[in-house]
Write a structure and sequence with these properties.
The complex is a heterodimer of chains A (441) and B (208). With 441 residues, chain A is mainly α. The termini of chain A are far apart. With 208 residues, chain B is mostly helical. In chain B, 69% of the residues lie in helices and 0% in strands. Chain B contains eight helices and no strands. In chain B, helix 5 runs parallel beside helix 8. Chain B is elongated. The chains are: A mainly alpha (441), B mainly alpha (208).
Chain lengths: 441, 208
């Protein structure tokens, strides 16, 4: 069997397995095993066991359950409640102000957690009913919560960046530094879009009435606003500051950050044994499923790459349209986008990054820049139906009058903004490369 | 809040009637009807084991957070690095990721794209067929990887292999032992899944 036929057969088997609903973490090692035993004999099985052990002994991956625990614990800490109220008072008089508050708060939450569920659920419970009460358009409100939530997977600390580091063999600290500006850029674009849209169509996001504002602002809100900003900012400074100043490794920062959220929860008088056990249980589920998939992907790629599969794909992609960089990039980005509509980002990242990264390096692209293109692209996968996690989360916590159609209609403008953000990063690589150059000199 | 459950659990249209769930909904007697009493017993034991593993891992996660924090505090504030910290953290993390794998298969929490075909207008027999294929693949992974995993473990025991992460140098075998344990668990889970899928296939579309 020629290597080309091997690659086609492998991907047909993988896609068929995934499409019919077999867990991705079963498909990858099973296909890898079949491939390995045909071409390499029993040696392939040793390779695969080594793949599991590589995930077990990866120092940086230990940060993953710790960041997940941090996010789960933060959700029950009530840290966002007061901040939301005070920001609402501050920006309530502006058209679309509540929407902007939702994005600000989602951005702050994104810098304290590495997952999207936390922000979507918290904003879905806190901001969504308030926006609907304030007569916001249902699609706009839904889109804001979903899009704000996806920032969690891009703005560090982020489990996507940790997994990217594993797949591409890159420094997680550098990836964290590179993701800050793109994350903030997207956040600013969401806010600008909300402000402009609501300015011209005030019925979509009306400001609070004077009476409502006076009722809300009965207390001195400015000192309270600053005070309510303290806990999340301390957490952000403690975790990201420690990482970028080189004081702590991502794992150490994740551990102390997780411990700090427990303390924060106690400080906010929201701590309970039930909350702790619930957060730990969620952590086991989320991190074990991701890590087992990571092990499955390692098992598959170790065999697939050893058989020259990576070289075949590289040859195909580079050979397409004379290997023009713009076309190669377009093919890769389109592949990621289309896969993002069908399967979860973890599977896409773990399958495609080991194959795409050598192509990017061959073309002389900066690995950090390319990494961010992949991550911003995968962010869209949270919003693109049918397989869109942010929509699933929101539907779970949204009031019954919020239909799926409302949510689908609401997320499209934000998918467009993410695509625009991606384009900006492609045209202006400094958006990605400036901060790592400054912080990690 | 779960970041990455199976899409089936969260998708609005996703009433995934998986075989793994059927096993829980119809315990005992179902196995009896189809002459599968041993599978019913196996299922009960596995469920008990999964609950025990989950309870232990909940403690592990809390201990993991505590140890990493303790290590950082001791090193940076007291200048006393903890020699055993990194290895123990690695054990807890590895146990936390490998031991619940079978359990997550049992309750359909492994990441899958079930909304593309599985949840859309399939008959119970068609779903059972997919589950049969899925569990057969899982069984193959467990069976074929078991021997090399045990060989690697025995090699580590024979050579007294130690971890080289820290000066503590604990033996490596406890960490390596987790791989065959995990494979045994997913092997048993796949046997259970295969039997339940076969039972449903035998019953036909009325089974749902």
């Amino acid at each position: 069997m020629s290597p080309e036929v091997m690659v086609i057969a492998t991907f047909v088997a993988i896609i068929a397995g995934i499409v019919i609903g077999v867990p991705v973490a079963t498909v990858l090692p099973a296909v890898g095993m079949l491939l390995g035993t045909i071409f390499m004999g029993p040696r392939a099985l040793d390779f695969m066991v080594r793949g599991i052990f590589a995930v077990m002994t990866n120092d940086v991956l230990i940060a993953l359950p710790l960041f997940v625990f941090m996010g789960c614990m933060l959700q029950s800490s009530g840290v966002a409640d007061k901040l939301f109220h005070n920001l609402r008072v501050a920006l309530g008089s502006v058209r679309g102000g509540l929407g902007i508050v939702t994005i600000i708060l989602s951005t702050i939450l994104a810098a304290t957690t590495g997952i999207i569920g936390t922000a979507v659920v918290m904003m879905g419970v806190l901001a969504l009913p308030t926006m609907l009460e304030a007569k916001y358009s249902r699609p706009l409100a839904a889109g804001l919560v979903c899009a704000g939530g996806t920032l969690g997977i891009l703005i560090p600390p982020s489990i996507m960046l940790i997994l990217y580091g594993l797949s591409a063999g890159m420094s997680v600290v550098a990836l964290f530094a590179a993701a800050i500006v793109p994350g903030l850029l997207l956040s600013a674009m969401y806010m600008l879009y909300t402000a402009i849209r609501c300015h011209f169509r005030p019925d979509l996001g009306p400001p609070l009435s004077r009476t409502e504002r006076e009722n809300l602002a009965a207390t001195r809100y400015l000192p309270e606003l600053l005070w309510s900003l303290v806990p999340p900012l301390v957490l952000i400074a403690g975790v990201l500051g420690a990482i970028f100043l080189g004081v702590a490794t991502p794992t150490e920062a994740a551990g102390t950050g997780a411990f700090s959220t427990v303390l924060l929860s106690a400080f906010m008088r929201k701590f309970s044994r039930k909350a702790l056990v619930g957060a730990a249980r969620e952590t086991v589920t989320i991190s074990a499923t991701i890590l087992w998939l990571a092990a499955g992907a390692q098992m598959f790629t170790s065999v697939f790459l050893a058989q020259g599969g990576g070289e075949v794909i590289k040859g195909w992609v580079l050979g397409f349209a004379g290997g023009h960089p713009a076309i190669v990039l377009a093919i890769m980005m389109l592949t990621l986008f289309l896969l993002g509509k069908l399967i979860c980002w973890v599977g896409i990242l773990l399958i495609t990054v080991p194959l795409f990264t050598p192509i990017a390096i061959t073309l002389g692209w900066d690995p950090l820049w390319f990494g961010m293109l992949v991550c911003v692209n995968l962010q869209m996968s949270f919003l693109t139906p049918p397989f869109a996690y942010a929509i699933f989360y929101l539907k779970q916590v949204a009031p019954p009058e919020m239909t799926l159609l409302d949510i689908y209609r609401g997320v499209w403008p934000f998918i467009g903004l993410q695509a625009l953000g991606l384009l900006l990063i492609i045209v202006f690589p400094e958006i990605v490369l400036w901060l790592p150059g400054l912080l990690l000199r | 809040m779960v970041d990455l459950p199976s899409a089936g659990k969260l998708a609005p249209a996703a009433e995934r009637k998986s075989i793994a769930h059927v096993g829980r909904l119809l315990p005992g007697s179902q196995g009896g009807d189809w002459g599968l009493e041993p599978i019913g017993v196996l299922g009960k034991w596995l469920d008990r084991l999964y609950r025990a593993i989950e309870s232990v891992l909940v403690v592990f996660i809390c201990v993991l957070v505590a140890i990493v924090t303790f290590e950082v505090i001791m090193r940076y504030f007291f200048g006393l690095p903890v020699i055993w910290g990194r290895d123990v953290v690695l054990w807890l993390y590895s146990a936390g990721f490998l031991l619940p794998v079978a359990y997550h298969y049992a309750c359909n929490k492994q990441i899958c794209a079930s909304d593309l075909v599985y949840n859309l207008r399939l008959t119970p027999r068609q779903r059972a067929t997919i589950d049969l294929v899925s569990n057969a693949m899982l069984a193959a992974v467990a069976v074929f990887l078991f021997r090399p995993a045990v060989n690697r473990l025995l090699f580590a025991i024979r050579l007294n292999e130690v971890s080289i992460l820290t000066l503590w140098r604990p033996p490596l075998w406890p960490l390596l032992a987790l791989i065959p344990i995990m494979l045994v668990l997913i092997g048993l889970q796949s046997v259970r899944g295969l039997a339940q899928a076969a039972a449903l296939l035998g019953k036909g579309d009325d089974a749902a």
